[in-house]
Amino acid sequence: MQDLVRIVLGRVGGYEMHVVADGLTAIAVAPRCAPELLLLDLELPGMNGIATLRALRELPGLQEIPAVFLTGAKDLELGDELRALGVCQVLHKPIRPRALLESIERTLSART
User: Fold this and answer.
1) φ, ψ of residue 39 in degrees (nearest 5)
2) Confidence at 66, pLDDT banded by 50, 70, 90
3) DSSP class of residue 23?
4) Residue ranges of domains in the chain
5) Beta bridge partner(s), residue 39
6) 2-107 belongs to CATH 3.90.180.10
7) Which of 3, 27, 56, 112 is spaced 20 to 30 Å from 87 by Cα?
8) Residue 112: its pLDDT value, please?
């Protein structure tokens, strides 16, 4: 999945990305990257995407960054809990490349 995201958003979309393998690394790296968007998988090693996002929201400068979740869980929808954390969209796997790119573009354009 990381390879697909890297190709679609990096090569096709022209976005700069910082891809990490787990939540703890995301928490360590994100403050130095000044991200415009957080794209998280629900199932991350060590701590899941929701716990990772909660931890990221406690860091300076990351409270208002929009977030998008990727998930294989068919029953996860964008509910009140996720909205309160700043999740804009939940994308279900398998992700179609064009749908991924359009979702990210829509989320980023809504911020401006």
Assistant:
1) -115, 110
2) very high
3) H
4) 2-107
5) 68
6) no
7) 3
8) 63
The CA-atom distances, in angstroms, between 54 and each of 60, 73, 98 are 13, 19, 29
Closest CA to 5 of 73, 77, 95, 66: 95
DSSP 10: I
Mean pLDDT score, 30-57: 93
CB 45 within 8 A of CB 21: yes
Kindly report the backbone phi and psi dihedral angles of residue 61, in degrees, each rounded to the nearest multiple of 5, phi listed first: 85, -5
Distance set, CA 20 to CA 27, 64, 74, 76, 111 (Å): 10, 20, 24, 23, 24
Tokens 């096709």 locate to 12
The two tokens of residue 85 are: 């954390």
Q: What three-state secondary structure class fits 21?
A: coil
Q: Give 8-24 pLDDT, tens digit per residue.
A: 999 899 999 999 999 99
| Packed helices 49-57 and 23-33: angle between N→C axes, nearest 10 degrees | 30
